[in-house]
Amino acid sequence: MPEKLTENNPWQTALTQLDTVSGLMMLPEDIHHVLRNFDRILSVSIPVHMDNGSLGVFHGFRVQHNASRGPYKGGVRYHPGLTLDDLKALAMEMTWKCSLVGVPFGGAKGGIICDPKKLSKGELERLTRRYTCAIMPIIGIEKDIPAPDVNTNEQIMAWIMDSYSFNNGYYTPGIVTGKPLNIGGSLGRKDATGLGVANIVENTVESMEMDLKGLAVVIQGYGNVGSAVGKFLSERGCRIIAVSSSRGGIYNPKGLDHASIMKYYQEKGSFEHFSEAENITNASLLELPCDVLIPAALGNQITKENAGRIKAKVVVEGANGPTTPEADHLLNERKIPVVPDILANAGGVVVSYFEWVQDVQCFFWPEKEINTRLKNLLDRAYEEVFRLSEEKGYNLRTAAMVLAVKKVADAISVRGVYP
User: Fold this and answer.
1) Is 210 in a helix, a strand, or coil?
2) Of 91, 207, 384, 408, which sits 20 to 30 A from 125 (CA to CA)?
């Protein structure tokens, strides 16, 4: 029986989306049942020597959803509020994301319940290395390839790679992606998600017959992804009229200069009191009149409570799961298209795939070639989604999910079940 939907629970949202498209596709019940479940969920305890001489014990996970199309792929996040439901939803979403854009991976996600801001660099390194050892039996260059996520970065990927290589007995750069360049990282990886979102915005604007030049864009979450989106869209002639961080945002209908606001943020740590704009809250930012709204912060930002007040002409999901199913329904009724996360922010996993390929081949590509390959894959994926949406009358999320689920279901069917 389908589980009852609970508003704002990411796992329930993921199940609702799968159940909806499975019904539309008339997916065989046995395949549907396989896709609702997981290949493996590993829970680990991680003892760590703390700087004060005590022994701390942290809890971590690695969730592997489905490997019918290739090795598992997904990030590792460190967060005090991390839950297993978060990771299950994100792992399933990674399966759909990889499938939709044609990357031969399945979905996974991992993480540790911790507040990295309260840990020293030494504690963080010991935590990372012990977690790597705990999940080593189920990861590998042809099994499961982790990557950075919330509160993890190049340095943490370097520690994972080094720990795995040391225990494996030889240098294994392809075990993770998102590494520093000098140990097997890829050019273009840092800005890949943001560049991908910008490319999808351009595709969306073209299909809606809007003019990219002067386009009014609002970006919630001007961090690694959001700021890259702002940079690339500004370069293409768009007008960034509002941005925000966790501490609030700024709004200027005439436009904000990307370089100026980034310099201010780096100096002050927030956008508060920026002289050339009005201070606003994250909640009010979402409801500003604009051409394109890009939620690029956290999940569950557009809900049934505020969906009726969204004034954007189109929403492009830079974050994972920023729109709840109820909000999706309300926006659809109001004829406001939503470009789903599994398409809009897939640039990161695409270039992660490129990094893995380069590591396996021990041959690296120039950044221009990487960005061209990224654009080609995303352009093709958007065209497939838009075409199916037009042919069947689906909204963009439904069209994307149908395409993604079908590829995975077909792989399960043709491979069969062993033994």
Assistant:
1) coil
2) 91
* Residues 148, 186, 297, 245, Cα dihedral to 10°: 110
Token duo for residue 48? 């760590």
SS3 label, residue 67: coil
Topology (CATH level 3) of domain 192-339: Rossmann fold (3.40.50)
| CATH number at 10-172 | 3.40.50.10860
CA atoms within 13 A on the CB side of 124: 18
Distances (CA, A) of 205 to 66, 199, 201, 210, 212: 33, 10, 6, 5, 7
In 3D space, the residue among 76, 62, 69, 75 whose CA is nearest the CA of residue 100 turns out to be 69
- Indicate which residue of 73, 109, 313, 375 is catalytic: 109
pLDDT, averaged in runs of 10, over the chain (419 residues): 54 93 96 97 98 98 98 97 96 98 98 97 98 98 96 96 97 97 96 97 97 96 95 97 94 96 94 93 96 93 96 97 93 97 97 98 97 97 98 97 98 94
pLDDT reported for residue 9: 86
Q: Distance of CA 218 to CAs 250, 296, 335, 337, Å? A: 10, 10, 19, 15
pTM of the predicted model, to two decimals?
A: 0.94
Sole residue written with tokens 């290739």: 70
Reduce the secondary structure of 368-404 to three states and give it as a string.
HHHHHHHHHHHHHHHHHHHHHHHHHCCCHHHHHHHHH
Q: Where in the chain is the domain with CATH 3.40.50.10860?
A: 10-172
For the chain, the first-to-last Cα distance in angstroms comes to 27
Active site residue 109: yes
Where are the domain boundaries for CATH 3.40.50.720 in the chain? 192-339
Beta strands (DSSP E) in 115-158 are 144-148
CA pair distance 55, 48, nearest whole angstrom: 6
